C-alpha cells in the first residue's frame, strides 16, 4: 500500500516538473518577431555606417598628406637650428614628392643648380618615405598650388624651400585637392619657420586673391 502511495505521489509531481522545464525553455528561446527586429536594427546600423566608412576612406589620403608634409617641414626646421646651417626641403611637384636635401659636399649628395643658380644637394638615393625626411603624396591627392616666395612652382620639375639657423624660412603655401575636390593647405610662417594647416577662411581668401 505504501508503495502505491509513493508511486502515485511521484506521478503527481511529474507534470509540474515538465511544466516548469517548458516554461524555462520558452523563456530562453527567441521568437521569429524578435529575430526580425534584431536583423532590422542591424540593417539600419549598417546603412548608417556605410557613408561614414566611405568618407573616412576617401579622407585618409588627404589627412596623411598633410601630416607627412608638416613632418618633413618641421624636421628640416629642427635640423637647421640644431646644426646651425641652412637646410633645404626640395619639392618635386610632378612626382608629388618632397624631401630634406643633403648638405652640399656630402658624399651621398649630388649638387645641382636651381633657378637662382644656387647649388642644392639632392640625395643620390631617395630618402625612405615615412622617415620624417621624405614624403610621397598619394596619387589620389593633387597639388593645386605650390607658391614659394610669391612664385608659383606647381608645374615645375623641382622647387626649394630654405630653412635658416635663426628659425626663419622662405615663404611657402601648398594647396592640395582631393578626389572629391576638397581643398586643404599648409603654409610656413617666415619669421618662425613653423608649418600650419590653413583653415577654410584662409583658403577662401586665397581663391579670391585676398592673401
What do these coordinates show?
There is one protein chain. This protein has 211 residues and is of the alpha+beta class. Helices cover 42% and strands 26% of the residues. The protein has 3 helices and 11 strands; from the N terminus they run H-H-E-E-E-E-E-E-E-E-E-E-E-H. A 5-stranded antiparallel sheet has the order 7-6-9-10-11, with helices on one face. Strand 6 and strand 7 form a beta hairpin. The longest helix has 52 residues. It starts with a helix and ends with a helix.
Structural class by helix and strand composition: alpha+beta
Distance separating the two termini: 110 Å
Strand content: 25-35%
The best one-word shape is elongated
- How would you sum up the major sheet? 5 strands, antiparallel
Secondary-structure element order, as H and E?
HHEEEEEEEEEEEH
SS element count, helices: 3
- Return residue spans where pLDDT drops below 50 for at least 5 consecutive residues: 103-117, 121-125
Instruction: Report strand order across the widest sheet.
Output: 7-6-9-10-11
Helix content: 40-55%
Question: How large is the radius of gyration?
Answer: 34 Å
